[in-house]
Automatic annotation (TrEMBL):
Keyword Transport belongs to the record: yes
SMART domains per UniProt: AAA
Lineage, highest ranks first: Bacteria, Pseudomonadati, Pseudomonadota, Betaproteobacteria, Burkholderiales
PROSITE patterns: ABC_TRANSPORTER_1 (PS00211), ABC_TRANSPORTER_2 (PS50893)
Coiled coil (UniProt feature): none
Protein name: ABC transporter ATP-binding protein
Pfam families xref list: ABC_tran
N-terminal signal peptide: none
Species of origin: Hydrogenophaga electricum
InterPro entries hit by this protein: AAA+_ATPase (IPR003593), ABC_transporter-like_ATP-bd (IPR003439), ABC_transporter-like_CS (IPR017871), P-loop_NTPase (IPR027417)
ABC transporter domain sequence ranges: 9-246
Length: 273
């Protein structure tokens, strides 16, 4: 297959559980297109972060394959993992910046750790990445001096420091005010378009995901793919499970009430005296 048509990441009949008692992902097959933004949505605990960990080679699937740009990920092959991770940028939940380093040194960190580039070149790259997120002027600030929205953008600059071909964002909008959320979302889209990186995004924020994604995957608890398609297709879906999720309806196929004994039984309502 021609490279440009081959998905950058392929999840091929993957089943995974952290232990044998519970399956987290159940025979999942997904394809993440090169140079596109794909959002993976789904309720808490349905396995979104787990999926990212499988792609990053943190865990191996119980069965099935994870294919990274045509290469099957094998977590026992340390040389391969190192090579693949060098091509991967990750923005962790809440950014996770080093508070003892300033803004500049946070972005420089992966460059100093993973490359032998001379310091003047590192300086230029760091300032370029900070420029891309609008924070070149903040390079000398301490992390304690920056706002939550700025911190997220610094984490973004750090995630793209090594020019990754794949960027994975774990809850990039969590804890942000609406304006910062919009800024972060637009940046994710722009960075994807400018760099041509393949972008995977997991988030609970449906409007932001719908606004910036090319493709959306909806996962359900029990590790099942409920639906996938363009944002417009998902928003227009007549499937009750998709509708409940994308519209945030409190009751639907996913029940508001946890299974319980009947009201009559618990409260004695209607019981004959
Ligand atoms: N290291 C682990 N060991 C055992 N169980 C785990 C581990 N990490 C996650 N789990 C469990 O696996 C399930 C899926 O977790 P995961 O973090 O992938 O879900 P998620 O969809 O990302 O959830 P959220 O949206 O709340 O972040 C959860 O029930 C979680 O408790």
């Amino acid at each position: 297959m021609n490279d440009s048509h081959r998905p950058f990441i392929e999840i091929d009949h993957v089943t995974f559980g952290y232990d044998s008692r519970r399956t987290i992902l159940n025979d999942i097959s997904l394809r993440f297109a090169r140079g596109k933004v794909t959002a993976v949505l789904g309720g808490s605990g349905c396995g979104k972060t787990t999926l990212l960990r499988l792609i990053g080679g943190v865990h191996a699937p119980g069965s099935g394959r994870v294919v990274f740009d045509g290469e099957m990920v094998n977590i026992r092959d340390k040389a391969q993992l190192q090579r693949l991770r060098r091509r991967l940028g990750m923005l962790f939940q809440f950014g996770a910046l080093f508070t003892d380093l300033n803004v500049f040194d946070n972005v420089a960190f992966p460059l100093r750790e993973m490359t032998d580039l001379p310091e003047p070149l590192i300086r230029d790259i760091v300032l370029m990445k900070l420029q891309a997120v609008g924070l070149r002027g903040a390079s000398g600030l301490r992390i304690s001096e920056v706002s939550g929205g700025m911190a997220r953008r610094i984490a973004l600059a750090r995630a793209i420091a090594l020019d990754p071909e794949l960027i994975m964002y774990d809850e990039p909008f969590a804890g942000l005010d609406l304006v910062s959320m919009g800024v972060t979302a637009r940046l994710i889209r722009t960075l994807t378009d400018v760099t041509g990186a393949t972008t995977l995004l997991i988030s609970h924020d449906i409007p932001q995901c719908m606004a910036i994604s090319d493709w959306v995957v909806l996962l359900a608890t029990g590790g099942r793919v409920v639906a996938q398609g363009t944002p417009a297709e998902l928003m227009a879906s007549a499937d009750p499970e998709v509708r409940q999720f994308v519209r945030g309806e409190p009751d639907g196929p996913v029940k508001f009430h946890y299974p319980a004994a009947s009201v009559e039984q618990d409260f004695g309502v209607g019981a004959a005296s």
